[in-house]
Fold this protein.
Amino acid sequence: MAQANLSPEATKTPPIEGHPHLPDWKWYDYFTFNIDHKVIGIQYLVLAFIFYLIAGLMAVAMRTELATPDSDFMDPSLYNALLTNHGTIMIFLWIVPAAIGGFGNYLVPLMIGARDMAFPKLNALAFWLNPPAGALLLGSFLFGGAQAGWTSYPPLSVITANTAQSMWILAVVLVGTSSIMGSVNFLVTIWKMRVPSMKWDQLPLFCWAMVATSFLALFSTPVLAAGLILLLFDINFGTGFFQPDAGGNVVVYQHLFWFYSHPAVYLMILPIFGIMSEVIPVHARKPIFGYKAIAYSSLTISIVGLFVWVHHMFTSGTPPWMRIFFTISTLIVAVPTGIKIFSWVATLWGGKIRFTSAMLFAVGLLSMFVFGGLSGVTLGTAPFDIHVHDTYYVVGHFHYVLFGGSVFGIYAGIYHWFPKMTGRMLNETLGRLHFVLTFIGTNLTFAPMHELGMQGMPRRVAMYDPQFVGLNQLATIGAFTLGISVLPMLINVIWSWSRGPKAGGNPWNALTLEWTTPSPPPVENWTILPAVTHGPYEYGVGIQPPQPDQPALDEA
Amino acid sequence: MKQIPASLLTLVIGVVVTLISLWVGQNHGWLPEQASEQAVLVDDFFNVMVVIATALFLVVQGAILFALFQFRQRQGDTTDGEPIEGNLPLEAFWTAIPAVIVIGLGTYSVYVFQEMGGFNPGLQEANSQGTMVAQVMDEQVSDVGAPLVDHGAADKQVAGNYGFGASPMKEGNTPDLTVEVKGLQYAWIFTYPDSGIVDGELHVPANQDVLLNISSQDVIHSFWVPQFRLKQDAIPGEETELRFVATKPGTYSVVCAELCGAYHGGMRTQVIVHTPEDFEQWRESRVAQAPHQDETVAANPAEMTATDYLAPVSQALNIHTHSLAHLTSEQ
């Protein structure tokens, strides 16, 4: 294995036309149609985080309603509007844009030694589809709010709150379009714009994850868009695609919806797997264990992930053979996922683990994801799924995967790359407080839900039987803890961004290419593009981590 | 520690983890009581998964916690860990183990699914009675006074093809009791074609083979009895079925599991499992007291509003007051 230093060598490429050559971005640059991938990445992250806070408040309001069995805190139709928009915003305007748009845009060019994404203007356009989507969703509350759940099954979605439901559809189609644009951009960028010295097996695992994610998004998103547009026609123009009275079929919508929306789970977790594979080796000071196994398992998940959607429909009108086929294919996803988890544990094994906030969230994710994965296997089997389908067991399971998984991963990524993005360090004490509150809050909120579901509490209800009150109150306390847990992070980010200690080019002594530029990286990232002389995770073999020169930071 | 060979330590840990997992699998108490033949099958299967999941959970979490403690950075140590990048036998091992487990669970789940009757929905079509009972669904519930069983028309193969049919033991048999189940915002209506009873609660005899033909009047609902471990969506325009044998007399909740509107959470009723003698008594008393049946036979339901249509049976229906108000306001 080559052990030369990762020093910038002369790989000169001409600067990209159209890029302004500013020494630093000003605050207002972040509110413009800026085509720099780093600006777009931060735009995605900040906007997504704002939506996270909004949808989080919706969750707290719902849990407040569920503190008592009766529907006494809010009107049940408002409750349904909140649960619909909570789910939609969390998925389409928080996790997907933060993980794919935010980290993907910021990191992919930096990790492969490119000056920008392949199509910078398409990239900016993809971002700017998100604010109107968010405005549509929030504005829909003026018209009663879409009330049919984030799945929006007809006929319910056709007969309730038509204007709001149409706004919901347009919002989701907008973010879907954004996602397709982004995926094309990532694939072309990773394929064509790596520095010539970077071989495929030197590609950071985050980029491998983005390849898998983009493939999956390109295959599945158009199907959702098609289903939703047909639904829009049913609602507004009197067509009958999904209306049995007019010769339509309500189950067809479910097939179209889940063909995208189960893969959406992998869209939300594959980039996070990528973040895990970057964070763990750096803070455990060990090469990632099983590089190829992790890279290939991402691709396997994206392929098998396209063939599991019917496990959401075991109780719908699905023929028996489908239930069996999709039981088996769903269970098979556990194998590549298991490979990743074992590889990360093996990376920890024998390392010199630094308990940074980023590492705490990464290990927290590992721990939660094991639980969520195991309950996922039980849900994949038709006989047991039929009992707990559409119950709180499912709610508990997917929050372990999407909160304990995706959200923890986004947090780990923020703590890890914040110094690179801003040139400032985050406060570690606040970071640990954030972690402890989040970890306790997550388990307190979502663990009791499994038992509630098995005992007989369906999901999406504003009122429930009094026998479930104890566990529900536990979950409500957990939700308040989660609400409070965001505060230390918010304070930390806002304070550290302007006043935090300077980070230097490579505060974690990491070996991937993004750490070979100053923090924050200048426009076009490098004066001279770096050359790759070793793999991204070769810790423990005496390679000196790059320590790029820092330009003076503006203290103002 | 140094004196104990690693293989012995692994063996001891393995035995302890296995014992704990087996104990958890038998004693978790997470599921409600079993009240149908299917519930036993589902629970046994779930318990096997709990044993496996507990073992995996303990092993992985144990490894994580041990690594965090054992391999933490010590004070003043700024060196890197051992550069171990992979180990093919180990990777093959932890790919093979989950693969074997999921193939095993997959096979077992197919077996359970078959025993539950998952492969046989709609097979009672071959039985003239089942077919006839099922196809009456689309005609109105208020036809109940008529002797439906004699309607014939065995050539129409419209019985449900989705849901749960007979278990292999009962395949080909005519169900002992057939009930038409209709979901509407926000109530369930149960119709007994052979006696003309219409009720808002489901009454079934214990230890008899019961077939529910499920349909929906408006949106998707989902019929779920947690103690039976059975759930089936009521789909507009499509018929589904659920065939079960209730094993334990008692009263259990019928829950709507699919979001069906604002008062979805209030769409609750009960299934009352009687002893066969009690069931006969209940049926006779209902048939004897059914005063409104003659009127409903004569009425044409197509000309009635939902409120009028429901009026004769509203007392028995146990519909949430909100729901009735909501229903009426929709007219």
